[in-house]
Structure formats: C-alpha cells, structure tokens
C-alpha cells in the first residue's frame, strides 16, 4: 500500500512538472513569435476582415436603394399621380397663397413628367399602375383636414416626398441599368430639386 502511494505521488509530481514545463514553453513561444510573424499576420487578418465587411455593407446598401428600371418607373408613376392629386387639394384648401402656388406647380410639372413616363413605359412594354398605390391613404387623409390644419401637413408631406424623390432619381440617373430610364431620371431631377428647394423655403417661413 505504501509503495502504491509513493508511486502515485511520483506520477502526480511528474504530471505537474510536465504541465508547468509545457505552459512555460507555450508562453515563451508566444512571446518569441509576438515580435515577429504572429503580429504581422494578425494585423493583416484584421485589416482584411474590416475591408471585406465594409465592402459587404456598401454592396448591401446599394442593392437596397437602387431599384430596377421597371420598379423605378412604377414607383415614379405612383408618386407622380399622388403629387398631382395633392396639388389639387392644395389649390383648393390651402390658406397660404404660396402653398396654393406650389400646389399648382405640382399639378403642372408632375402632369408633364407623368405623360413623359407613360410614353417611356409604353416603349419599354412596362405596365404602369393606374392608381396611387400606397399614396392613396395620404391623399385621402389630407383631404379630410380642416383649412387651418391643411397647410402645415401638406408642406411636411411635400418635403418628405421630394427628399425621397430626389434620392431615388439621383440613384437611377447615376447608376441605372437602362439608358432610357436613366435619361428620364436625369431630365426630371432638376425639376424635383427645384420643388424641394421651394417647399423647404415655405416650410422655413412657417416655422419662424
């Protein structure tokens, strides 16, 4: 029994010594390599990973914001019809003369752009929507507002809508896949920017 205990103690001691020796060697090796290739490789890995992640984010963002030419035309048709109908409401219900004037500009400019878009869609064999889609509810809600409430709500709608429009048309003008659709977006973009500038000026006066 005593011999067994002595042997066991010897084995345990050997294992502890071996473990300590192994840990010491590992630390030495890590420290030795840390001033050389290990740090260089780690830095390269981190750099490559960051670069790949940035590219992935950029590609995802681009794919989310740039629609196909067909979807772009359909979205533009929905929005264009809504701008005309909201413009009619502004001419009828707005109290501020500048808001009424802006509403008339929406009727004139967007009716023209809508007709050009219809001609382009016919050329491309694209069937455009005949209603306002998701904008229908916004038009109906505006129509229910009292005269004193209408102006501010309409102006806020126009600012938001034209910010979205300018962003979408810029994307299509710069990166669209169809040359004809790109040309339409490029031609219409200055008018949308003019609208955005005008409605922001009206909003600024209201907020004073």
Summarize the topology:
Layout: H1 2-34, H2 37-65, H3 69-93, H4 97-123, H5 136-143, H6 147-175, H7 179-206
Helix pairs in contact: 3-4, 3-5, 3-6, 4-7, 6-7
What does this 3D model show about the protein?
The chain is mainly alpha-helical and 208 residues long. It folds into 2 domains: 2-63; 67-206, Ferritin. Helices cover 86% and strands 0% of the residues. The protein contains 7 helices and no strands. It has helices at 2-34, 37-65, 69-93, 97-123, 136-143, 147-175, 179-206. α3 (69-93) runs antiparallel to α4 (97-123), α3 packs antiparallel against α6 (147-175) and α4 (97-123) runs antiparallel to α7. The model is unreliable at 1-40 and 49-64 (pLDDT under 50).
């Amino acid at each position: 029994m005593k011999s067994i205990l002595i042997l066991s103690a010897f084995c345990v001691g050997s294992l502890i010594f071996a473990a300590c020796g192994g840990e010491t060697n590992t630390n030495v090796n890590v420290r030795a390599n840390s001033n050389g290739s290990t740090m260089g490789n780690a830095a390269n890995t981190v750099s490559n990973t960051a670069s790949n992640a940035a590219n992935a984010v950029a590609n995802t963002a681009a794919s989310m914001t740039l629609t196909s030419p067909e979807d772009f035309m359909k979205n533009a048709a929905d929005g264009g019809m809504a701008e005309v109908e909201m413009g009619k409401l502004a001419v009828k219900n707005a109290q501020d003369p500048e808001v009424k004037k802006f509403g008339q500009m929406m009727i004139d400019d967007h009716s023209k752009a809508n007709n050009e878009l219809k001609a382009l869609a016919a050329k491309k064999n694209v069937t455009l929507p005949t209603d306002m889609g998701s904008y229908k509810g916004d038009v109906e809600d505006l129509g229910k507002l009292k005269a004193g409430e209408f102006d501010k709500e309409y102006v806020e709608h126009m600012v938001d809508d034209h910010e979205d429009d300018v962003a979408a048309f810029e994307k299509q003008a710069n990166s669209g896949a169809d040359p004809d659709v790109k040309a339409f977006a490029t031609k219409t973009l200055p008018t949308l920017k003019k609208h955005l500038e005008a409605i922001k000026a009206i909003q600024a006066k209201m907020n004073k």
